[in-house]
Amino acid sequence: MSFALEAVDVGKAYGTVKALDGLTLNIPRGGIFGILGPNGAGKSTLFRIVLGLVRPTTGETRLLGAPAGDIKALRRIGAVIETPRFLPWLTARDTLTMLALESGLKTPDIDGWLQRVGLTEAADRKVNGYSVGMKQRLALAAALLTRPEVLILDEPTSGMDPAGILEMRALMRELADRDGVTIILASHQLDEVQRVCDSVAILDRGKLVKDGRVDQMTAVNERLRLQASPRDTVLELLGAKGVADGADAAFAAIPRAEAPALIAALVKAKVDITEARWIGGDLETVFLDSTGDADAR
Ligand code: ADP
C-alpha cells in the first residue's frame, strides 16, 4: 500500500513538554483522514515535522514515501497549517496570480479556484478587509493552485460561520472524491471529524490512542435503548447483553442486524415497547473512552 504520510516512533520535546511521544501512524492515500485530539495533543507539531519545518527529537516521518522536507515530495503537497497571512493591499485574485508566478505555473486556473472556495464575488476586494474565514478560503485556494496530491489542513473550519463550514465540508468531499486529493486534517472538533472524515487517528498527549475507519469505530459503541414494560422481562431476554437504565428502560448491546429478532421476541413475551432508539454510535463516545477527556464535551 502506498502511504500519504508515515510516522515511526516520532518524539518531539520542547523543554520538558513532550509535544509528540513515540507516535507511530500510517495514513494511506485516498479519502479524508482526520487527526483528532484536544488542544495540545501534538497535531500541529506532527504537521510541522512532516513538512520539514521542525526536526523531531526522535523517530522519522515520510510524506509520499520521501523523508521530511524533501523538496520533490513537498511540490506534490498543499498545506494550510498556520493562520494565513497575505499582503493586505492585494486582492485575492492578485494574491493567487502572484503565487502562481512564484510557483512557475503556466496556466493557473485562478478563476476556477476562486469559485471553488467561494471567493468569486470578493475576488477583487483587498485582502485587508477579509474575515478570518475568507482568509482561510484564500489560503486553501493558494494551496490548491499547484494541484497537490495531498492536502494538509490544520483546523480547516476555524473562524468560519456555519454556512462557511458546510461549504468547506462539501469542498473537501469533492476534492477527495472527484479530484482524488488525499486530505489530512487536524481538528479538535469531534463533530467535524465524524461528519467529514473517512478515517481518523485519535491523539492524546503526543501519543496515538486509537485509529481506524470512522464508520467501524462508531459502530462498535452503538447500543439499542429500549423503554419497555415490564423492564425485567427485557433484561431476562437479553441476558449478558442487557443493562438496566433507570426503572423502565434497558440498553441492549447488540448489532443492528439482531434488532428485528429481539423486538419480535419482546412482543412475543408481551412486553410493551414505548421507545426503541440507537444511541452512541458517535466519535465522542469513542474519544472519551480512549482519552478519558471530559473537556471534549
Ligand atoms: P495541537 O496542534 O494538538 O493543539 P501542538 O502540536 O500545537 O498541539 O502542541 C503540542 C504541545 O507542544 C503543547 O503542549 C504546546 O504548548 C507545545 N508546543 C508546541 N510548539 C511549541 C514551541 N514552539 N515551543 C514550546 N512548546 C511548544
Give the SSE map.
Layout: E1 3-14, E2 17-28, E3 32-36, H1 43-50, E4 58-63, E5 66-67, H2 71-74, E6 77-80, H3 92-102, H4 110-116, H5 132-144, E7 150-154, H6 162-177, E8 182-187, H7 190-196, E9 199-204, E10 207-213, H8 214-220, E11 223-229, H9 231-238, E12 242-245, E13 249-252, H10 259-268, E14 272-279, H11 283-291
Parallel strand pairs: 3-8, 3-9, 6-7, 7-8
Antiparallel strand pairs: 1-2, 1-4, 4-5, 9-10, 11-13, 11-14, 12-13
What does this structure look like?
The chain has 297 residues and is α/β, with parallel strands linked by helices. The chain has two domains: 3-213, P-loop containing nucleotide triphosphate hydrolases (Rossmann fold), CATH 3.40.50; 223-279. It has helices at residues 43-50, 71-74, 92-102, 110-116, 132-144, 162-177, 190-196, 214-220, 231-238, 259-268, 283-291; strands at 3-14, 17-28, 32-36, 58-63, 66-67, 77-80, 150-154, 182-187, 199-204, 207-213, 223-229, 242-245, 249-252, 272-279. Strands 6-7-8-3-9-10 form a six-stranded mixed β-sheet, sandwiched between helices. A hairpin with a 2-residue loop joins strand 4 (58-63) and strand 5. The radius of gyration is 23 Å and the shape is elongated. The chain binds adenosine-5'-diphosphate. Adenosine-5'-diphosphate is lined by residues 14, 17, 19, 37, 39-45. Adenosine-5'-diphosphate binds next to strand 2 and helix 1.
